[in-house]
């Protein structure tokens, strides 16, 4: 305490307790009042929405008080981007404390104390990519901002999943713009709207509300056929996973940190693939043409050593392969 007050030193060792020092320097009542302002945002449903627990509160209290000590001012409103970054340098080796300090920075952004996130991490920073850009007027920019945030800020998504989901959520955005233009963000979806969208997907045609630059044949647009069961299931699953992700964590939408999404309906119950569609997803073997079946039967009956690869010839005797192929050609129901 003497080193801090008279020499300006803040020694943040392994046993350093910032909230105890801050309580002695600034007064415990004042310190706890500043902490509660941050905690109400970090743990509040209208804020960041993190689960409140004793370990989480301990880490957050330490982060808040460390920032106050570094800034040498007991007021939360006096904190700056520079003071937060300086505090991070003192605890860069302590992962949990760094994460808590990052939440403090996001809370200050939410409270309009700072204008930019002082400690952005890989989840807060939107990685812009031409692949996730879209400027056509058939999708509302506000819906697209949520779509882009989900794809760029969600950890653990494969490139293939991002590409497919980008396509499916754009279709949902076009549907909104055409039939419900007043709905521009996920929080406006209610259960009747979801049911309406599910019904539309189940009756949509191939190429409907799909961009013309997609790799679809001209015939698909001119004489559209019903969607395949796999496409219907994929669209509904993508939207369900989108809503569930928004319920789990906040996302940075533009320059604002949007809180976790609160829905009056359950995506797992409402955004489900109807049973008639599910029944079409099971394997559906087709009857093989008679001419092809005869060719396969003849190939199995006339199999010779020259038809085998070196690897197959070294593993199984020719007689065994011939008998297996002959039996499959005569007994397999899907080939008859």
- Give me the count of strands: 2
Total count of domains: 3
Uncertain stretches? 122-128
Structural class: mainly alpha
Main sheet attributes: strand count, strand direction, barrel closure? 2 strands, antiparallel
Instruction: Report helical residue fraction.
Output: 55-70%
Question: How are the strands of the biggest sheet laid out side by side?
Answer: 1-2
The percentage of residues in β strands lies in under 5%
What sequence of helices (H) and strands (E) makes up the elements?
A: HHHHHHHHHHHEEHHHHH
Q: Count of DSSP helices? A: 16
End-to-end distance: 88 Å
| Average pLDDT over all residues | 81
Please give the radius of gyration in angstroms.
Answer: 30 Å
Q: What general outline do the C-alpha atoms trace?
A: elongated
Helix and strand topology:
Layout: H1 2-7, H2 18-26, H3 28-42, H4 54-71, H5 81-90, H6 95-110, H7 141-153, H8 159-179, H9 191-203, H10 218-222, H11 229-248, E1 251-253, E2 256-258, H12 267-270, H13 275-279, H14 290-301, H15 310-315, H16 318-331
Antiparallel strand pairs: 1-2
Helix pairs in contact: 2-3, 2-4, 3-4, 3-6, 4-5, 4-6, 7-8, 8-11, 14-16
Structure explained in plain terms:
The structure is a single chain. By secondary structure, the chain is mostly helical. Helix content is 56%, strand content 2%. The chain folds into three domains: 2-110, no CATH class; 130-279, no CATH class; 290-335, no CATH class. The chain has a two-stranded antiparallel sheet with strand order 1-2. Helix 2 (18-26) crosses helix 4 (54-71). The protein starts with a helix and ends in a 5-residue tail after the last helix.
